[in-house]
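quick one, 465 residues, struct below
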Amino acid sequence: MRLFDTLTRTERELSPIDGSTFRFYCCGPTVYGPAHIGNFRTFVLQDVFRRVLETGGLRTLHVRNITDVDDKTIRDSQKAGKMLKDFTDAWTEKFHADCEALACLPPHIEPGAVDHIPQQIDMIAKLVEKGHAYSSDDGSVYFKISSFPGYGKLSHLDTRELDLGKTQNERANADEYEKDSLSDFVLWKSRKPEDGENFWQSPWGEGRPGWHLECSAMIHEYLGDTFDLHSGGVDLVFPHHENEIAQSQCACGGHFAAHWFHITHLLVDGGKMSKSLGNLYTIEDLAAKGFTPMEVRYVLIGAHYRKQLNFTLESLSGAREALLKLAKGARQLAAKIGDEHVTFTSVGFGPFEAAWKSLQHDLNTPGALGGIFTGLKEASSLEGVEAAKALAGLNRILRALGITLPEIVEQKEADVPDNIRALAEERWAFRTAKNWAKSDELRDQLAGLGWVVKDGKEGYTLVEK
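---
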């Protein structure tokens, strides 16, 4: 498999450093609320990446952390009047449920930041001892980026004219700060009144670790000083991943990540997601609109990971049609096998080889989806053993994408009352005019009256709840 590397800006072939297991780390969720579809675009594509490696015969070790202590988790747990652990445990459980609904494989190891405070303190102590970090008057500890000549290489900040000597007087104490803010970043945050009881003892006084440090300590614990690949959303390149490299290499040595895999943001209806626009969708929000998690997954993998995906409710309806078409194609192929029982000791991809090659080349998921439909057309003329081989290849490529096909149910539309039909027709008119806000409003109104609308390309179906 070849994959684009953020550091070198080239496509590079992937192979495990130890010749046996491909070990990779993914920055996980900050558990202070429900994850939204923007978060899940990253997690779903990371899941496809792992599935492709394993389908290709590689053993993997997938580590993904849980950020359960930072500015946001402390702030929102205090607002909710809950203990930090109770608050973050509840949101972690919700995240796991959404991952399962989206057919994401659980990581092999999922460490939490709170459970690794001693490792973080130990890493800070090494950085202070080696002259890469210093404490301030209030007991906070900062990483001195001028002590690390390689700072900026991942995000290519190093190509600019930078005066790293000035950063000694510029410090970023917040866990997150403005992009391109060249500042010494916090490793240990001294206790503040707003932290409440969320603090730990350290050689520098009471406090808690900075967000950037958490991943480095957990990576060192489970993957060592050099490992195969690091992944996250493109928004983490700077400063988060840049800071991880600096503090990890300075504290522990090693190469750190041999490859960097970043996923680009998505748009919703052509614009940014935001609560104020009402388009910051969660899996639960979309389920309330009648869409399944598998339809959401199909849309999320429908654009290349290095390109922006424009997420719309209309695209979910398209995903429903596509999944149904795939299910019908698989059923027709199965019917051509007859009563023969075929056992394959080594299953290839048959007519779906092009789809597999797309995944092997920079995780081209849209190319793979297109290749599946082309493969189904090619397989339509096959019979018996050859049809069985093709069906096995189809199932294998679907597993690599994490796609489960829907059950085909021949369903006649129920008798619909005149008032419900009139409301549905009004909604369809708004939808056709691309007045999504009004269309969604009437969809919700129909749902409140006990009717689910299932959209297709040429029309809609009403199903009574």
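The chain has 14 helices and 17 strands.
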